[in-house]
Amino acid sequence: MTTIGYGVSDPMFDECPEVVPLLVAQSLIGLLMDAIFLNLMYTRFSTAFTRSASIIFTDVAIVYEENGFVKIAFRVCEVARKPLIEPMVRLYLIKHGRVAVDADMEGFLDVDTHQMALEEPDINIADGKLFLTLPTKVVHCLDETSPLSSGPVRNMQQFHDQIQAMDFFEVIVVLSGTCPITGNSLEARQSYTASDLRYNCTFAPCVSLHDDKHQVNFEYFHRTMKCDQTGKSPSTKLL
Q: Where would you find the membrane-spanning parts of this chain (predicted)?
């Protein structure tokens, strides 16, 4: 396609004008194929799947008491140098209802999905958008509006008993944002079950200051510390 016209002594191809529209069609088809190929290459390398892998969630969620309420929290951070644009996080509680008793529906479950309100980040401040360059804690308070209980949970033992009484318990975390390089929307997901809960714990510090720059140690990012009996100050034991 790029050598059309070079070395041709007769532009009409020895009085064969039918070749001219054929060459035009060839050039247009070639340009279209180039555009399709370049688009496929761009789509392959700008996929948001690999970008979402730069969002790191803690392996476990902590349960602790604060201001007379039981709260559940986890940490999230981003390892990429260029942070997401307007990242937002949502929490969903997955619960199983009663098993259908109809013989034709044996083995099926009633699955209920409940959205969980967040205490942190506050939706009234910056529309609840996160700053993921540093580790950010996401907190849900077990008050009267929480789908985890029918009323306020005052102590962790009460919450633990409620979780154990459930047939199924899972919290789905969905973090969405926009890639600053490609402009693609992406989602990162994390799941926490009853075995992922750590009671009466807090997260270990994982940020240090070197040459007036904050550095995140991801080796300590997932670690938790056991709180003392008052639940206010953590002990030095890492979990």
A: 20-42
pLDDT tens digits for 136-190? 999 999 888 888 876 667 788 888 888 888 878 899 999 999 888 778 888 899 9
CA-CA distance, 163 to 146, in Å (whole number)? 13
Q: What distance in Å separates the CA atoms of residue 136 and residue 153, rounded to the nearest whole number?
A: 24
Which tokens in the block code for residue 187? 């989602």
Q: Which residues contact 108 (CB under 8 A, 6 or more apart)?
A: 99, 100
What Å distances lie between residue 30 and 1, 220, 224, CA to CA?
7, 55, 59
Residue with tokens 């200051």: 209
CA distance 107 to 135: 42
Rounded CA separation 147/97 (Å): 13
Angle at CA of residue 238, ends 233 and 239, nearest 5°: 115
Mean of all residue pLDDT scores within the chain? 83
- The phi, psi pair for 47, rounded to 5°, reads -60, 145
Pairing of strands 201-203, 207-210: unpaired
CA distances from 198 to 4, 33, 64, 152, 180 (A): 71, 56, 9, 20, 35
Residue pair 234/226 in contact (Cβ under 8 Å)? The answer is yes
235 pLDDT higher than 80: no
Rounded distance between C-alpha atoms, residue 213 and residue 164, angstroms: 44
Q: Report the half-sphere exposure of 63 (CA within 13 A, side-chain side).
A: 20
| Single-letter amino acid, residue 142 | L
